[in-house]
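sry for the spam today, last one i promise. struct tokens for design, 518 residues
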């Protein structure tokens, strides 16, 4: 079965006896104050460090400071409750272990070679907590003095030292929200590269609304980025179904990029979630979660995988031990249907459902992908397709779609697919478009209602899709309303003829100019 993370490992060393680096008495920080302070830490790095690398340095420092401030609070609480400061030395008194000489204050006190001290502290903390924190601080080059001089690192550490990040100063939800804000700011700053780790939260909320995860269900994201979809599932359960602790130990993710997977783990920790599994690795080549000789099965599978990924692992799938090529072998030039088939194989038999973001080309491309799409439709696995507005995602102005699949449809939905055109639902931004909450609610209502909506939604029988050569091209089934200003047919014909005549004149003029040039 799927293994669960063990409790934090023990160590006999501690750092009690020294005063905490933060203020002794603090006022709780607001989200706004925290956001402003955290973003200013990025400005300290600006210049020597590229904007795309800010997250590599800022997030580990934030988590390190949080851990040390919580450690100090735990020491004070044990000493106060037990009346014996020596009891605070026991590992059981702490959520995470901080070895001797590896506290924030130890690094802060270093007059030189700050990067070396910091790197040692982070690595020793990882080793002291192997079941929960190994690799969580990523692979930042703290000792590279050409990029991070002692003066710059000391400025950064002093900046964080002005924040009290223990539980008394900052609640988990507040810190987690500020962390998400920072992820969004870094995504804005890097734009094209942000698509590799960040999905707009409005799109995430829409996908979670559609899947409607419940307490006690398992959630899996095979391309989890910074963990936003797992967190959105937790928030949804809190808001709709009560206690989200039923999800503890039932949150699973895999992410190929080391820094991004570390950020995802920190993200969940800072939101107060301790029992989860996020594994670094290549999902298509080496899936991390399995049950015996089969892929592990989950109630909700959700992902925004990289669009049309090349060199995705075709060489492994030719003899895939998990049978993920059950509907066909995707082309080497595009891994879209490799992700889809992996996610289908990861759905639980009865309760399994999934939502995946895809480029709209995946809905109508022919060849091998068309054959895979046909088999998924014949198996009655596809429940819905939702076309989104263009320019919602970082790094691409193309319109994407959400494909919803379900292992066992309800009786009323069998043999049918809801096809929706949500391309008109967005708020235009200067560089990017946005889905607002009212847009998310309306699209989710379409899916849950599963009935025709004029000019927006059509419920189509699979046999009718077969008659259209198995295409899911949204415009084939849902036509936008005709504009009121469309001219009468005779006028349209006349305007077309005039435009055609102008075009021919331009061509003749161009040919004449080219002939004169010769």
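last one done:
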């Amino acid at each position: 079965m799927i293994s669960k993370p063990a409790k934090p490992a023990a160590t006999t060393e501690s750092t009690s006896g020294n005063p905490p680096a933060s203020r002794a008495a603090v006022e709780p920080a607001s989200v706004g104050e925290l956001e402003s302070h955290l973003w200013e830490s990025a400005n300290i790095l600006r210049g020597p460090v590229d904007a795309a690398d800010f997250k590599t340095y800022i997030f580990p420092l934030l988590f390190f400071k949080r851990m040390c401030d919580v450690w100090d609070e735990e020491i004070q609480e044990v000493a106060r409750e037990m009346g014996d400061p020596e009891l605070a030395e026991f590992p059981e008194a702490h959520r995470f272990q901080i070895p001797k000489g590896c506290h924030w204050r130890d690094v802060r006190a270093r007059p030189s070679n700050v990067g070396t001290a910091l790197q040692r502290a982070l690595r020793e903390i990882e080793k002291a907590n192997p079941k929960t924190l190994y690799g969580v601080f990523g692979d930042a080059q703290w000792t590279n003095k050409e990029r991070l001089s002692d003066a710059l690192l000391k400025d950064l550490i002093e900046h964080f030292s002005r924040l009290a990040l223990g539980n008394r100063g900052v609640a988990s939800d507040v810190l987690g929200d500020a962390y998400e804000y920072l992820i969004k700011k870094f995504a804005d700053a890097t734009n094209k590269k942000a698509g590799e780790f960040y999905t707009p939260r409005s799109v995430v909320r829409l996908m979670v609304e559609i899947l409607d995860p419940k307490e006690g269900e398992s959630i899996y994201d095979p391309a989890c980025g910074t963990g936003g979809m797992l967190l959105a599932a937790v928030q949804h359960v809190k808001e709709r179904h009560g206690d989200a602790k039923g999800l503890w130990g039932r949150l699973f993710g895999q992410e190929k990029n080391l820094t991004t997977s570390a950020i995802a783990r920190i993200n969940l920790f800072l939101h107060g979630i301790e029992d989860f599994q996020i594994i670094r690795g290549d999902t298509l080549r080496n899936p991390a979660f399995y049950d015996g000789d089969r892929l592990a099965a989950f109630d909700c599978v959700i992902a925004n995988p990289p669009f049309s990924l090349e060199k995705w692992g075709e060489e492994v799938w030719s003899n895939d031990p998990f049978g993920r090529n059950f509907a066909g072998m995707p082309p080497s030039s595009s891994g879209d249907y490799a992700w889809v088939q992996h996610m289908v194989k990861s759905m639980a038999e009865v309760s399994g459902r999934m939502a995946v973001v895809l480029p709209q080309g995946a809905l109508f491309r022919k060849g091998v992908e068309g054959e895979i799409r046909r088999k998924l439709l014949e198996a009655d696995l596809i429940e819905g397709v939702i076309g989104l507005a263009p320019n919602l995602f970082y790094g691409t102005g193309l319109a994407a779609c959400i494909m919803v699949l379900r292992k066992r449809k309800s009786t009323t939905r069998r043999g049918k697919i809801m096809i929706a055109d949500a391309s008109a639902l967005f708020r235009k931004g200067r560089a990017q478009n946005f889905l607002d909450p009212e847009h998310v609610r309306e699209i989710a209502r379409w899916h849950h209602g599963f009935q025709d909506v004029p000019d927006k939604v059509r419920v189509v029988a699979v046999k009718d899709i077969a008659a259209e050569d198995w295409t899911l091209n949204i415009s084939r089934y849902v036509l936008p309303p005709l504009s009121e200003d469309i001219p009468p047919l005779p006028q349209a014909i006349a305007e077309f003829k005039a435009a055609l005549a102008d075009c021919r004149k331009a061509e003749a003029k161009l040919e004449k100019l080219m002939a004169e040039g010769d």
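The first strand starts at residue 219 and ends at 221. ok im logging off now
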